[in-house]
Structures are given as structure tokens and as C-alpha cells.
Amino acid sequence: MSSSSIIVSVSPSELQKINLVVCGSDGSVKSSVSDLILDQRSEFSADSRSVCVRREAEVCGRLITLVELPALYSFQLSTEEEVMRESLRCVSLCDPGVHAFLLVLAEGRLTDEDKGELEKIQHIFSSRFTHHTITIIPTETQQEGAELDEDTRTFNKTCRGGCYIFGSVPDVSGLIDRVQQLLMEKNGDLYTPQMFLDGQLETQLRRYNSKVAEMTTTIQNLEMKIQTFSEGRRRDALRIVLLGRKGSGKSATGNTILGKENTFEHSSSCMCQKETAEVNGRQITVIDTPGLFDTRVGNVEIQKEITKCIFMAAPGPHVFLLVLKVGQRFSEEEKGAVEIIQNILGEESVTYTMLLFTGGDLPKDMIFQYFGDPGSDIRNLITKCGNRLHFFNNKQIRDRTQVTALLEKIDSMLAVNGGSCYTNEMFQQVEKEHQERILKEKEEEIKREKEELRVRFEAEIERMKTTLQEEIKYERKRREEEFKEREHQLEEKHRLRGEEYENRRKEDEKRINDRERAIFSQLERQQAEFERQRHEDQKRREQEDEKRREREEREEEKRRERETREEEKRRERENREEEKRRNREEREKREWEERREKEREEYKGKLEELKRNLEEKERKRRDLKQRIKLLEEKHMKELEELKHHLEIRIQKEVKTKEKLIEEHQEELERVRKSMERQQAEFERQRHEDKTIREQEDEKRREREEREEEKRREREEQEEEKRIEREEQERREWEERREKEREEYKGKLEELNRNVKEEERKRSDLEEKMKLSEEKHMKELEELEHLQKELESRIQQEVKTKEKLIEEHQEEIERVRKSMEEKDLQLKKTMEELEKRAGNDDCRYY
Question: What percent of the chain shows pLDDT beyond 70?
């Protein structure tokens, strides 16, 4: 059988709630009735009918919780323990209690299985079951056509909710109204788990009383047999029990009464001895008992032997002879001898007690001196025994007149007592009162022990609660101080980091400004050098032109001298060459001017591009500063949220622990009020439910931790992606810089080295920022680790408190078991006494 119930939540809503339990022998019919009431089909097959099935749905504007109780009389619930467990679970599933039981019965004649199921339900749920029951009769016809069996009609009369016919078109709203009417008649009383446990307790009490009645009948039958046996004996039989301290002459008195020497040995007075003889035509039975106040034998053993003598003198002794020795010191113990006999044999035993003084051969004045004046201790003892006394001279055993006088006094006492003897009923009544007194004392002692345990446990709980609160308070204070210290450190670090960043920013701006001035200065120098070079080139060309003209003039003069005839032709040629040269010079000049203008435009473009790059760098620097600021704000916000979350968690844990302590106190109080097995079963079930809730809470915490871990991983991945993106941008920017550096390789080499140095410093700054972020993340991880340690310590403290509570519960259970063992031991003792009494009677017969 499954150890847990099947719970199906169909439609939870905040409506008026009604808890119904459907019971009966036919599982399919119960499921059909449940489906009709909830207007839905069950998703469980017949395999699930050995456990309770709980379903919920909204019906007629009310939230109906319907629990199907498995057939208790069927073979699927084989043991009584399983039946009780499932019945208790059925009632427990209806929180806070059952509004009505819907008992499903067949329309025709009830089968043996139906009757067995009905008797089983009434036996388990007690007589209060009918006060909360409505009988449901499913039928294929309309309500007017339903025919009921005589047994069904008889049972319906006992049900307070009456009978409701479920026809082919069932009126569910009418059934709900019938339930409401039943609740109004009962003033809203519900059938609660406590009623179930009370019913089980009543059942156990009935069983116990039945067993007690059987034992009482057995004892009465045994007494009747003993009485019948006693009546068959001679009417003039006399049973005498000798009592007294060691050395008082009990054994000698028994020998004198029976007229035999050495019948009772003095050395055998440590246990009861029974002897019978015929004296003056009468059968006399004398029972010698151990000496009272004998130091060799404990009082408990002496009491057992005296108790044993009652059974040896069955059906009971006629007289108790308290033997005292004249001339012997009347001790303090002998003064209370009558009280001792009353404690052992009851107050009625005094009417069957007679004092017998040995030493009758002593002088009379010595005897009078022994008795003392009126009001002395010995005379008070004689008064308590009704002034019944006799003197014996055990030295004259053949003097039978003293024995005859003793028998006559005993007969006179018997006549006063109506001829009755001290019976076993009197002794059993005394034993019963004695046992009740012992049980009452033990109950009071157990009650005191329980009260001491409760006070001690409450004090321990209060002490642990105070200690836990102090530890939580101290831990909270320490955590607050740590938070404040860390906040101060973080603020100081952020302030120093801001100052350092501001100083570096100023240094970077100064460096950039100096670099711009150096670049403009270098550009001006390069422009001046370019102008100087151009001027020198022009001057050199003019000088070359001058030299060339001089050379040409000399050549021209020579040519004029040599070639006079060709002078005109040569002049024409020179003129053409001059024209070509001039054209070439003009063309070269224009090309140079164009090249110069183009270089100037390229220089301006590169200067503007350099300015744009510098502006882009400044923008990225501002963006980086903004991101750092946002990141710091984000970390501070996360730190505040973590602090707030930790405080809330600590408060929740404190409230949870206080609630847990209160629940354990209530649990202990319930255990103290009822130690029956069903209550223990209910507590165990509640403990299992609590364990399941704790496991669910543990799973929920693990799930939250896993989600938190995933969130941290996502943040780390995003942070890595951001870093990679920045690194990619930085690499792209470096590639662009590399291209620019290639373009400006000759003219801006020093500028590139400065930019490279700046980039290195920027990388150092980013590395430092990254290290700072990693350090901050480590601090957050340390905070989380400290939080987990605090939670672990709190859980360990809770487990310690739960273990202490379990130990107290085990101690209470041991006390209860000790009581039960003592009760069993007492019953065994009574049975042994009865068996011994029976054996002695048989041996005597």
C-alpha cells in the first residue's frame, strides 16, 4: 500500500470552503458520485483506491474539497494499522475538519460487504460519525422510484443528515444545501482529527474495560470454586495465623495449640509454614509467619510471606494471633504492630485480631508490671484489639486447658463477627486499594516529573531562544559594522580612485594640449623649411639660368664669330629653344604650384583628421569614465540590495526559528496530554509533513541558489562580452592607428610614439579598472559566503534544538513505557499469587 495520499488540486479559489468525505464499499460508485458532484471526471483508476484521493472544484459558488475514502473492509487495506492510518489521513486532508460524510449505499438489499464496511466505519469513526453523515442512494430512476432496504431505512434514521437520493439527473445544489442545513443544526461543528483520536481513545478504553470485566469474571469464578471447596470442608474447621516479632514464641505457640512438639521449627521462621491437626475433635490449621521486624529479611519479603499466608488459609483465616512475650521489652516497632497489620491486611483485619501473651508461667505481679498503668502503650494496643487477649505457658504443652480456653475465646470472637472469616475478597480489596494508592502516587510522581521536565524544557527552550536571539543580534551587529566598514572603505577607495582619475585626466589633457602645440609647432617649422627650400630652389634655378645665359652668350659670340652665315638660323633655333625652355619652366612652375597646393590640402586634411581622432579619443575617454561611473553605481546598488536582502533573510530566519520553537512547545504539550498510539501516529505524520515541507524549502533554496548562480554567470558572460567588444574596438582602433602610422611614418613618427605611450597608459588604466572590478566581485562573493555560513550556523542551531526536543520526547516515551511495564508486572504478580493460591489449595485437598 502506498504510504502517501494522492492530492489533486483542480481549481483553488478564495470561496466558501466545504470539506466532504465520500465513503462506501464500491469504489467505482464512489468515483461516479464524486464526478457528478464536482462535474468532472477523475483521472485516477481503480489502482489508486487503496489510498485517499483528494479533489477540489468550484460548485454552486462554493469551493468543494472532496476526499474519497478507500474501502476499509476490502482486502487492499489488510492490517488494522493501515486502516487506522488511512482513516486518520482522510480526516487530516480536510483542514480544519470534515463538514459532512457522504455514505454511498446500494439501492437494493445491502450485501455482506456493505454491512461489513458500515460496521467498520462506525467502529473507526465512533458514534459521532452518524452526527455528520448524509446517506447517498444512487439510482437510475427518479427520486420517487427509489426503493430502500429495511436495514438501509433503519440506518438512515440514525443519520442526522438523513438520506439523499441521487437520481438520473442529480441535484447537486440540493445536496450542498442539505450539507449547509446539517451544519446549521450542529452549530457549525466539524468532525476534526481530534475527534477521531478521541474516538480511538474511547475504543481502547472500551476494550480495556472489556478485558477488566473478563478478568473480574474469571476471579469471581475462581473465588466461587474456592468457596465451594471450603463449604465441603468440616463446619468446625478453624484457621489460625500467628503474627509477631522474632523470639516472641510464635513457633512454640503453634506447637502448643496443635499439641505436638517440634512441629514448627524455630529456624524455619523466615517463610510461612502451614500445619494441620485435630484438636478437641476440631480440625485446626495453624500458619506460622516470618518474624516481624526481622533484620535478616527485608520488609518487602515479610509482607509477601504474610500475603502468601492469606492464600494458604483459603478461603481465609478466622483469627490473627499477635504473639507478644511477657517480660520482653515492648519495642517501638511492636507499638505500631497493629498499624503494620492494617497496612498489609486492611482495617477490617483488626476485628479478626487477638493478642496472645507467652510467658504465662511468670508471677502475676510481674505480668501486671509488664502491662503498666492505664494509658500505657501495651494497654493502648489491647484497646485497639477490642480487649481480646489470652495467656499461654508454652512450657506446659500437655496442659490442654489453656488451648481449650483459647479456642473458646476465638469462637466468641467468631460469634461477634457473624461466624465469618477474613476472606480473600477483603484482602483483594485491600490489595486493590493499595495498588490504587501506589498507582496514584506513581501518577503524581510521573505528573511531578512531567511538570519538572516541562519546566526544565521550557527553561531550556527559553534559554536557547535567548541565546539564539543574542547570537543573531550580535551577528547582525557585527555584520552591520562590517558593512559600514566596507562601505567606508569602498567610499574611500572610490574617492581616491576618483581623485586619481581626475589627476590623470588633467595630466592627459595637459599632455594632449602639449602634444597639439608641439604638432602645430612642428608643422609650422616644416612649412617654414618647405618655404626656405622652395626659395633656395628658385634661387638655384635663377643662378643656373644666369650661368646658362652667360654660357649661351659666350657660345653665341663664338658662334657669331664662327658662323656668321648661320647666325640668323641659329638665333631662330635658340629662340625656339628659349621658347620651349620658358614653356617648360612655366609648366614646371605650374606643376610645382599645383603640387604645393595639393600637399597643403593633404596637410590640412590630415590635420583635421588628427583633430577628429583626438576628439574621438576624448569622447571615448568620457564614455569610459561614464561607464565606470555607471558600473560603480551598479555595484553600490547591488551591494545595498544584498545588504537589504541579507537583513530580510535574517529576520525571516529569526521568525521561522521562533515559530519553530513555538510549534515544538505546542507539540510537546500535545504529547504530554495524550500518549496514546494514535496521537503518536498523528504526530509522526505531522513530522513527516514537516520534513516534506523542509525538503521543499531546501529544494526551493537550492533552486534560488542555482538561479542566482546562473544570473551571476550571465552577468559574467555579459561582462566578458563587453570586455571583448571593447577589446575588439580597441584592436580596430589600433588597426586604424596602424594604418595612419603607416601613412604618417616619415613625418609623424614622434607623434605615433607618444600615442603608443598613451595607449599603454590607457591599457594600464583599463587593467587597473578590471582588477578593481574583480576585487569588487570577490568582495561580493565573500559577502555571499558569509551569508551562507550564517545560514548554516542557524540551521545547525535549529537541528540541535530539534534533537534536544526529540530527546525530551524519547524521555517522556520511556516514562510512559515504564508505567506500562509496571502495570504488566503488577498484573503478572496478581496472576502468580492466584496460581500459588490455587496450587496450595490443591495440595491441601
Answer: 73
